[in-house]
Amino acid sequence: MNLKEGYPYWLIKSGLPVNYPKLDHVLKTEVLIIGGGISGALSAWFLTMAGVECTVVDARTIGMGSTCASTSLLQYELDKPLCELSKIIGDKKANRVYTMCYEAIDGLNSISKKIKFNEFENHNSLYFAAEKQDINLIEREYKARMEAGIKVELLDKKDIKKLYEFSAPAAILSSQGAITNAYMYTHALHKSAMAKGLKVYDRTRITSKRYKKDGVQLNTKQGYTIHAKKVINATGYEVTEFINKKIVKLQSTYALASENIREPQPVWKTGVMLWNTAKPYLYMRLTSDNRVIIGGRDENFYDPEARDKMLKNKTRLLAKDFMKLFPSIELIPEYSWTGTFGSTKDSLPYIGTYSKTPHTYYALGFGGNGIVFSFLAAEIIRDMILGKPNKDSSLFSFDR
After folding, report:
1. What value, to the nearest 5°, has the Cα angle with vertex 381 and ends 377 and 386?
2. Which residues, listed in sequence order, are joined to residue 208 by a DSSP beta bridge?
3. Judging by beta carbons within 10 Å of its beta carbon (0-12, 13-18, 19+), is residue 196 exposed, middle or buried?
4. Distance between CA atoms of 86 and 355, rounded to whole angstroms?
5. Residue 326 in contact with residue 168, Cβ under 8 Å?
6. Which residues contact 114 (CB under 8 A, 6 or more apart)?
7. How would you write the pLDDT of the chain (400 residues) with one tens digit per residue?
8. Range 132-151 burial, b when 16+ CB lie within 10 A, else e
9. Residue 146: C-alpha distances to residues 77, 95, 347 (Å)
10. Contact, 27 vs 226, CB < 8 A?
11. Do β-strands 73-75 and 4-6 pair in parallel, antiparallel, or remain unpaired?
12. Are residues 164 and 268 in contact, defined by beta-carbon separation less than 8 angstroms?
């Protein structure tokens, strides 16, 4: 599957930091993880730290799928606001999901410190009304989060202008958020787990599977066989090639990274992460070298050729979106890219087992919270493989 096109900022910035080998022999392993991006890396790290023998294989070079195309904003907020999610799955479940995502950001921060990964920063997050008519949504969402025990602030137009120097009718300010580099975080996770015995192979495509009583037999494109007692599928949007069930709607999304803006202060005050109520929503963050990363302008289709043809115009429109908020700042796009994006009906990931594929678990962090969802998947699947009960697994099951 063609997941991205263009020049993702993280790949330009970091290059290819590690050379992983191809699998060139028959292999036996307790757990095989298919997909070596951020989802697979987190699952591998959690299991390896729990003493479980793991092997990761990826059809591409590690991190070259959706991971390097991520804008790497970490938010507990879902694509669907809490007040709307509650109507779909009920207040109790919706509150629990938001709380889990809130706590996952702390968990990701804790791991980054353990593995000595420095590209992780906590930041406030501002969810603002794109139009005056969205004030009601902002107010309902503020009330829902406060009732769920999530402390946030409700800001009016004057507050926003004073604090962040742009205009919006209303906003919710949250202190829980972070920015990172998902591409390098992935490599750091693999490095840490490899020191404890994890094996990682890239450019190793799985071409067939055979489910047996005692595990799964897999074959690679190069003709080697892998025998695994358990398999974790962390291939993200490419799972549509493995599962005969429509669980995700594929879309196309766009992003850009600006030139370095040479000012002594952040482009906007405090470097708060910004995103709005528009559909599709617009989101922005700063990098450590004062570049602006902007994402959005999604299209409701998956067609790589059509998607890629729109990149130039979408880049122009994203820059224009920024200029509407900050007309006094000259923003010059330097890198831009487009990729596949997926959404589910309830904006929740799919985590756990699927009845038609024995001995197999799925870590599918669909939506804008992919990295946060991948953390939750890694925790839940670790518990499942270790035989430990996890009270939250049903929230993200295929049978929900």
Report:
1. 155
2. 219
3. exposed
4. 27
5. no
6. 192
7. 555 567 899 999 999 999 999 999 999 999 999 999 999 999 999 999 999 999 999 999 999 998 999 999 999 999 999 999 999 999 999 999 999 999 999 999 999 999 999 999 999 999 999 999 999 999 999 999 999 999 999 999 999 999 999 999 999 999 999 999 999 999 999 999 999 999 999 999 999 999 999 999 999 999 999 999 999 999 976 676 667 667 888 889 999 999 998 776 667 778 899 999 999 999 999 998 889 999 999 998 888 899 999 999 999 999 999 999 999 888 999 999 998 888 899 999 999 999 899 999 999 988 889 999 999 999 999 999 999 999 999 999 999 8
8. eebbebbeebbebbeebebe
9. 13, 10, 21
10. yes
11. unpaired
12. yes
Burial of 168 (0-12, 13-18, 19+ CB in 10 A): buried
Q: Which residue shows structure tokens 């697994």?
A: 393
